[in-house]
Write a structure and sequence with these properties.
The complex is a heterodimer of chains A (about 250) and B (about 375). Chain A is α/β, with parallel strands linked by helices and about 250 residues long. Chain A is built from 9 helices and 10 strands. In chain A, a hairpin with a 2-residue loop joins strand 1 and strand 2. Chain B is built from 15 helices and 2 strands. Chain B has a two-stranded antiparallel ribbon. In chain B, helix 5 crosses helix 12. Classes of the chains: A alpha/beta (about 250), B mainly alpha (about 375). At the A-B interface, helix 2, strand 6, helix 3 and helix 4 of A face helix 2, helix 10 and helix 11 of B.
Chain lengths: ~250, ~375
């Protein structure tokens, strides 16, 4: 099982945001998408999640063109954590996490909603916030709630033969150091359990330590991809980010 | 294991606490609406007793004959107060649920159909029909019959929703200040339009026009009430069933979409059904402000923001609010009558100020 970009191409204005990008994220591995701002990471992620249609090329999930997967079916196979939340109504934390279960409404999986919500909250260490108003939380706490919601969405194995996929756009940006590390360990552990995990990340030290695979983006192209230890080198980072000097990763 | 089990019931306990509270609010609002309906029939210049009401009700379902009730009382109940009370219920429910739906649609608790011009859009369309009447709309009205006005007002309201949405949407997010200011602009435009129509109108039309701008249930006769009620019940039922996807929509359109919600379809249905409810309500009783602002807020304070309770709760409490407001309108200066819109504005405008002051630091939730 895999999540793939197949010659995905997207133009905005006269600029190719993503230039015929091809790559495969594998189930059971934690893939990090890295590169400078505006290099096309988020666009690639959004195309892979089916949130954005490319002008040319396509995205595949489990071998199927993502545009051909029915929306609720897709929602049971992959969850997405976006960069920021726009929720402006005073839902309680456990209610927000429960919203992740909405694609399972009317399915046998619905019976397990409460247990799954509890497990997902425990996984993100927000069980003590369960009855807090989401709007009164700090940015980092909100982010952990958003991630718990995504975990709850795909907590169970979906239809047999399909993997659980988790896509995250800069999930560590609002977190303090302790929770950044905890999240990276969690994502890595989920991958080891067989989930597919794909995240846009900026902290190359964290990526180097925890991710299995890395795609390096530059100017809308994937200029390097593969095993994190091989791809992330002092010189590849220097090239990707146009640094003046090689970048020490360890 | 024992402690595990104790912990694992926690989320379901939390959920059932909210559900219990939600059901309680629904029951309370429903009870209030029933009380308001009974008072609406019993109270008024002509003294009608509960016994009279029961007798007439029973005779209408064939359980008894109403010979004990005088023909005058029977006539007042059946042809004056009953249609008015029924209209109050549906207008209140429509405006309440439409307010809740608009607030979900715009992801902002200040989006009231009156404030942002959805009601006045409907009223402008209706007024244009009255004044320009025969010449332009004659054939349309002839075909639609008594559905004509509600349907024309529906299109006016729909145009208003579409316009406000287009104007206030920037990069996929609704800019609240723009939304409210666009509402101000639209309301001014409608006021100007209605003012111009007033200038063109003859005396009989003029009385109609005051009715449009201030709102009243005084025009409640069965011929006009029934078609409007039919359209409003479609709107109310349709909006209440949108509760789940509208909850997801509060997370933002992108997140709702990744949860499997067909965002465009839900938005379209919410907008069309809101315009239908508000347009039909406006067509029979003019612009009645603030119901859509006050009611969902009160419900949300009691149940939390979950649309599964907010939407039906707003329908029931909206019905209750309009029933009691109409009682005040009828009885305060009896035997004369206050415009209903005056009463709801007297309740709603201070409430609006209170909201602004309460959330001053939050910058309009925006």
């Amino acid at each position: 099982m895999s999540a793939e970009l197949d010659k995905a191409h997207l133009v905005r204005g006269d600029r190719a945001i993503l230039n015929t990008a091809t790559g495969t994220c594998v189930q059971g591995r934690f893939t990090a998408l890295c590169g400078p701002n505006g290099a096309g990471k988020t666009t690639a992620l959004r195309i892979m999640t089916g949130s954005l249609d490319p002008d040319n090329g396509r995205a595949l999930l489990g071998g199927e063109d993502i545009r051909h997967i029915q929306k609720t079916t897709l929602a049971r196979r992959r969850a997405v954590v976006s960069q920021s939340s726009v929720l402006s109504f005073p839902f309680l934390v456990h209610e927000v996490v429960t919203m992740g279960r909405s694609p399972h409404f009317g399915t046998p999986g619905q019976k397990r909603d409460d247990l799954i919500v509890e497990d997902a909250m425990a996984a993100m260490e927000i069980d003590n916030l369960a009855t807090r108003n989401y709007l009164t939380l700090s940015g980092g706490e909100r982010k952990r709630v958003d991630i718990a919601r995504a975990l709850a969405q795909v907590w169970d194995q979906p239809d047999t033969g399909h993997a659980r996929w988790l896509f995250l756009d800069e999930p560590t940006s609002a977190l303090d150091l302790k929770h950044q590390i905890a999240l990276m360990e969690r994502l890595s552990a989920l991958a080891k359990q067989g989930w597919g995990v794909v995240a846009v990340l900026h902290d190359l030290h964290l990526v180097h330590e925890h991710a299995d695979d890395v795609w390096l983006f530059k100017n809308g192209e994937i200029i390097a991809k593969g095993d994190a230890r091989n791809v992330l080198t002092e010189t590849s980072v220097q090239t990707t980010f146009d640094l003046a000097a090689p970048y020490a990763l360890t | 294991m024992a402690s595990d089990a104790a912990v694992s019931t926690a989320p379901s306990r939390l959920k059932s606490a909210r559900a219990r509270q939600g059901m309680l609010v629904l029951a309370g609002s429903g009870g209030l609406a029933i009380l308001g309906a009974i008072m609406g029939i019993v109270l008024g210049p002509l003294d009608i007793g509960l016994a009279d009401l029961m007798n007439v009700l029973a005779s209408n379902v064939g359980l008894a004959d109403a010979s004990e009730v005088s023909l005058v009382k029977k006539g007042v109940i059946e042809n004056i107060r009953a249609p008015r009370v029924l209209l109050a219920i549906f207008v209140g429910a429509s405006l309440g649920v439409a307010g809740a739906a608009m607030q979900g649609f715009f992801r902002n608790p200040l989006a009231d159909p009156g404030l942002i011009g959805v009601s006045t859009g409907g009223a402008l369309a209706a007024v244009a029909v009255i004044v320009l009447g025969g010449a332009l709309f004659g054939p349309v009205l002839a075909v639609l019959g008594s559905f004509g006005m509600p349907i024309i007002a529906f299109f006016g309201s729909l145009a208003a929703v579409a316009l406000i949405y287009q104007v206030s949407l920037v990069d996929g997010r609704v800019v609240v200040a723009t939304m409210l200011l666009a509402g101000v602009a639209l309301n001014s435009l409608a006021a100007a339009g209605i003012g111009y129509m007033t200038f063109l109108a003859d005396d009989a039309q003029l009385r109609d026009l005051t009715f449009w701008t201030l709102g009243s249930l005084g025009g409640a006769v069965w011929d006009r009430v029934l078609p409007a009620i039919l359209l409003m019940s479609i709107a109310i039922a349709g909006l209440v069933t949108l509760a789940r996807p509208m909850n997801s929509l509060l997370l933002g359109e992108a997140d709702a979409s990744t949860l499997g919600v067909n965002v465009e379809l839900v938005k379209l249905r919410a907008a069309v059904l809101t315009a239908l409810g508000v347009g039909a309500a406006t067509a029979v009783c003019g612009v009645i402000g603030f119901v859509g602002l006050v009611v969902p807020h009160l419900v949300r304070l009691m149940t939390g923001p979950d649309h599964r309770y907010v939407l039906p709760g707003s329908a029931l409490l909206g019905a209750a609010l309009v029933l009691f407001s109409d009682l005040i309108a009828r009885l305060a200066v009896s035997p004369a009558e206050l415009p209903l819109g005056v009463v709801t504005a007297a309740i709603g405008a201070p409430f609006f100020f209170w909201l602004l002051i309460k959330d001053k630091r939050k910058g309009l939730y925006g």
